[in-house]
Design a protein that fits this description.
- This protein is an alpha/beta fold and 336 residues long.
- The chain has one domain: Rossmann fold, CATH 3.40.50.300.
- The chain is built from ten helices and nine strands.
- A seven-stranded parallel beta sheet has the order 3-2-4-1-5-6-9, with helices on both faces. Strands 7-8 form a two-stranded antiparallel ribbon.
Length: 336
């Protein structure tokens, strides 16, 4: 699986944290060359990538932002982005991990992509080029730098940016939290993805007479990831078990029969327990959660000293457990 994303239009399901963690795992544990693309205008993935934050909050981040990269197309000056001008910083710890960073200005792309979604099916060559620009950008970056995998971070939305970004990927995981609201969101998501794929096929069918190359637009569903559930004595608590079952029921009945999928079986491909205080520390030090160590516990200690004994062992065990679940996702990505 070359290009992928974690998608759920409901917020608070750990999309960004899981995206960064999987990218770091592929880079550091699997020796892969990986690119992160921050396609969420809130740019939380970018903050995570460049952590710890600079002392000067107004300092410019290195590299090219996604909006800067696509701006020549939005302004109509170029049909295709010239990737040789794009600068992709590498991570300070994970040397084969790079980023096309986020930008608050990328929210302006919603209007451009909305127009493209509405008008690319017409004879408007301009809108057809805008429709394919993100997919072409990703493919050209892969060709120029030899990335093994590209992970795209999406915001909790169902607008034009998310639509075209998802269609530009080869596959997607659905991260969920086992509760009523996420269950409702997954039911809506299943219908949404199906409609996007169907509309895409009608749109790109109009491209050949204009000599514009389209793209598949049929991302495969890779599996469901349960995030932040509570466990007791090694078992998921009863209320969470109920909503986990309801989500799988919807996946089985509403998603698997209607969209391309990695598997014909509805199951959780990873189950990540509530990692509580580990994530904020990981964001401060710029590490993936599974790489947290004793030194990092100083940031959560009241006295500023490193933990020891049972508290430390529990901390490190939770970090290892997190890594074990990320490994399951990495296996799917590599094997696909």
């Amino acid at each position: 699986m070359r290009t992928l994303t974690f998608y759920n239009h409901k917020g608070g399901v750990s999309k960004t944290t899981t995206t960064f963690s999987l990218a770091a795992y592929l880079a550091s544990r699997c020796n892969k060359k990986v690119l992160l693309i921050d396609a969420d205008p809130q740019s939380n993935l970018t903050e995570n990538f460049f952590a710890p934050p600079a002392e000067d909050d107004d300092s410019a981040l290195p590299g090219t932002s996604i909006y800067e990269a696509l701006q020549p197309r939005f302004e109509g000056a170029a049909a295709r982005v010239e990737v040789s001008k794009i600068v992709l910083p590498t991570h300070k710890l994970y040397k084969t991990l790079s980023i096309l960073r986020g930008d608050w200005n990328f929210s302006l792309a919603e209007r451009y992509f909305s127009n493209a979604l509405a008008l690319a099916i017409t004879e408007s060559v301009h809108e057809k080029h805008t429709y394919v620009v993100l997919y072409n950008l990703i493919q050209d970056l892969i060709g120029a730098h030899g990335f093994d995998h590209v992970l795209v971070d999406l915001g909790p939305a169902s607008g034009a940016i998310t639509n075209l970004a998802l269609l530009s990927c080869d596959g997607y995981f659905i991260p969920v939290t086992p509760d009523r609201f996420c269950t409702q969101a997954v039911e809506a998501l299943a219908k949404l993805v199906q409609r996007w794929i169907e509309r895409h096929q009608k749109t790109v069918a109009t491209f050949p007479p204009f000599g514009i190359t389209s793209f598949p637009g049929e991302p495969r569903f890779l599996g469901t990831v349960s995030n932040a559930f509570k466990a007791y004595a090694g078992r998921t608590k009863k209320p969470y078990e109920y909503w986990e079952r309801q989500i799988l029921r919807i996946i089985a009945s509403e998603l698997l029969p209607k969209v391309p999928s990695h598997s014909s079986t509805a199951e959780y491909v990873a189950s990540i327990k509530d990692f509580g205080g580990l994530a904020p520390v990981a964001h401060i030090v710029g590490k993936a959660i599974f790489d947290l160590d004793r030194e990092d516990t100083k940031l959560t200690s009241a006295g500023g000293g490193a933990w020891s004994g049972v508290a430390l062992e529990s901390w490190l065990a939770r970090a290892r457990e997190y890594g074990d679940e990320i490994d399951k996702l990495a296996r799917i990505v590599i094997d696909e």
